[in-house]
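User: Please run a holo structure prediction.
Assistant: Happy to. Please share the sequence and the ligand.
User: Here you go; the ligand is 2-oxoglutaric acid.
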Amino acid sequence: MSNKRTLDSFFTPSSKKQKKEEPTGDEKISHSTHVEYPFSIPELPPSIAKELPSWPALPGKEINDQPDLDLLYFEPFVPSYVAKDLFKFLRSQLPFYRVEYKIKRGDVETQIRTPRYTTVFGLDDTSVFSPNGKPVDAKSQKEVPNAYSRYKPRPIPQCLDALRLSTEAATGCKFNFCLVNYYSSGTDSISFHSDDERFLGPEPTIASFSLGAKRDFLMKHKPGVEAKQLKLPLASGDMILMRRRTQSNWLHSIPKRTGKNVVDDGGRINITFRRAMVKGGTDNYYNYNVGTGPVFKWDEVAREMKVWKP
Ligand SMILES: O=C(O)CCC(=O)C(=O)O
Ligand SMILES: [Fe+2]
């Protein structure tokens, strides 16, 4: 991104989601912009966008041989040569956060530091973005007083929305949220959990993409039922669709890597598409994936995430 682009967007903030064109050598790159984005986000480069119509690269395979488990595993969805470019593009162009929050168990308060970089875009089913970029009621198209007052939602930028549309076409599901995790090394992780929040409705379907370094995805049944644990070594470009009774009955995690495996070659990006039904879902997702701390952006020289300064 040139200095000109950065200064322009800093001095002429716009509340509108709009596209700006900027010549960079031979081709023009358009950007997704929104008043709540810390910086504008380039659209997918043509070299990646032209590949999209041929995804998924291979049909999904069903994994449903354990109680309550229902997965569709695309191995891969994004072919590996494009997955590498998509990984580098998203790592360098998205705003990321390292969210901290407090939890209280009984009288004891603990400060939690999320052990990975995160970011989120989207809005639950009750609202849509109006042409001026503000959330309005999906039916009346009017602003809802006091809604989304703590965190201001951001629309899914074109570069991720193109993948959302491709995922919807391949699965027949609808998604309104995109969560992104960046595991910068083997010490970044996500502990066992299920994505079964009430705001996703019963039996939510979640599409989960892997880009970059290979990491193990572990799955185990919630206590009380005999079932085998699964270990899926997710590779760049793979997509796991988790369906039906899976979230309410199974837990999943990406464990830390130790010893010589700790260095994992530039890290891994995970993208999940989900559908939140109510406003509480929007607040929850922004609270845990954007929060109130600094913005991080990939620094190509230092080859790591650095606190971003306008
Ligand atoms: O990184 C992954 O593959 C899993 C991420 C995940 O489970 C989540 O964000 O809820
Ligand atoms: Fe999850």
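The helical segments are 3-11, 46-49, 80-93, 158-171, 246-249, 279-289.
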